[in-house]
Amino acid sequence: MAVKIHGFIEGTQSEELMKLLLTLASNWGDVFDTSKLKVVHLSGAMTNVVYRITWPKNGSENEERTVLVRVYGEGSDIFFDREEEIRTFESISSHGHGPRLLGQFAEGRVEEFIHAKTLSAGDLRDPEISALIAAKMREFHNLNMPGSKNALLWPRMRKWVIEASSLCSPEQAKEFQLEILENEIDALEKELSQSDQNVAFCHNDLQYGNIMIEDETKTITLIDYEYASYNPVAYDLANHFCEMAANYHTDTPHVLDYNVYPDLEERRRFVQAYLSSTGQ
């Protein structure tokens, strides 16, 4: 089974993935012929490499079976707990949201393929699409997920600063002002943590590449839950507004253009759609 899938994944990973795909195909009653696998690299993922894999369905030449394979990016585990992400993925799926988890291998997983279009940066500014995103976000926030219900925002940022400090030289730590960052996190937590704050299960990464839409039904699906956790609802909304200032398909994807940050009317319209989506 040491078959390479068109050279995109090799060695032990390839063997594990091929065994997993063979098991899935057998469970579905498909004839799994590796020579007929089609592999397409999908752009847009930030921390992983994602592929669409298809093969003939039930031996048919006219129908195809399609799955999504996600290969984890090197070093991405620094930012989140991969085991916790998988538990979150499965729990969200059990609530009827997002794709189903079909299987795992050492460096990635196989997911149900969602037949929908990934949004572009410009789509976030479309009033109709924006209202649909707001309603879906409200649904997401209403999920009752297992585990701690405490906001993860502050300890997560402190952990990232510690990780950055361990990877930086003293000169780099000074250049990036990591010591000041620690103080800023403390000040922000003190200023922004209120007793009446609404904490709910948040996506925490609602950039356009993590939002899909089915054109005919106008159904929104949120994907990629690597950063999902309980957090202040206001943080998830504010983060989504910041994502409107991002374009990850440029030479400087990490630089946000706050000249295109949503104005007061756009933000008001989004929040109104969010609040009114449950009939209130």
From TrEMBL:
GO terms for biological process: phosphatidylethanolamine biosynthetic process. Residues 171-198 form a coiled coil. The keyword Cytoplasm does not apply. It comes from the Eukaryota. Keywords: Coiled coil, Kinase, Transferase. GO terms for cellular component: cytoplasm. InterPro entries: Kinase-like_dom_sf. One of its GO terms (molecular function) is ethanolamine kinase activity. Pfam families: Choline_kinase (PF01633). CDD domains: ETNK_euk. Belongs to the choline/ethanolamine kinase family. This is Choline kinase 1. The lineage of its organism: Eukaryota, Viridiplantae, Streptophyta, Embryophyta, Tracheophyta.
